[in-house]
Predict the 3D structure of the following.
Amino acid sequence: MAATDPPIPAIKPTDPVCFYCSRQKNAIDPWEFQILDIGRLRSGAELGCQTCDLRYRAVSCYSSDPDQRVIFQADPKRLTFDRRRFFEIFKLPGGDPCALPTIQIGYPLSSSTASEETLVRIKGWLHECTTTHDACRGAESSQSYMPKRILHLSHEGRVVLMESVKPQTYACLSHCWGPSQSPIKTLSTTIDSFKNEIPSQKLSATFRDAVDICRRLDIRYIWIDSLCIIQDSDEDWAEESAKMAEIYANAFLTIAATKSKDGTGGCYSNRDVSHVNCGTVIEGSVFIRGQMPRFGGPAGSKAAESWPLLLRGWVK
Ligand SMILES: [Zn+2]
Ligand SMILES: [Zn+2]
């Protein structure tokens, strides 16, 4: 503890939070922050303060220097040592909901969004969506809308452009075309051959990944603008682009290639190791990791550069 810090007042047995933590707990501004050193947190923990204990365990994953200052946000889940690297504390789902109510639920992440673990997570979210959300329940069985053209992903691995398919579950792709434009598109000269088959080697990396995601999720149809609208027909463009809101709204799932600035980037990405590697705060239930970056951000910011799709007007 730094020499200038006054001693911590004793904790009342009725409130297992120390003087400093209770002051912050009652703060009106949730963004108010508190600067404490690790030595003080250890003393608070030894006095029986549960918040200090949790914070002490969390910061101990990264530093054991008692004079190391740590900046906490009003709730105990976000902290930084130097205002450059931020960390978040999270608890796994399924535990006692009354325990640590201010700690957000989080999931451990795998290093690649292409991994099997990520697929299992996506399937879990879809299951939760279709079984617990009032607006989404039964969406698959009651599908009544189908875009005029759609790509069919056959069991044999072929991608075929189809028209007038009876309504069934389909996905949409949201993506940036990029300055080079889409490398593959449906034109009045290619539509007939695409109705026979679109060779997968002609698909861009982003389209190939989107098809792969659909196949892994057992979704047999996907709508992609450049392939489902005839790009050199003004008439078709006017007709189909007017229906875009409906097309996206009726999709079972929209795959957003947020990190790709064009078709070469694909839909999968690798994560920063600081978000993947977790420190243990409470064995088996509470962990700490580098804070996940926030989506979006103003043009020119690091966040905006990371997710070019989110800067596009139609996504905002
Ligand atoms: Zn405390
Ligand atoms: Zn839902």
Notes: The first helix runs from residue 19 to 25. Residues 116-256 form one domain. The longest strand covers residues 86-91.
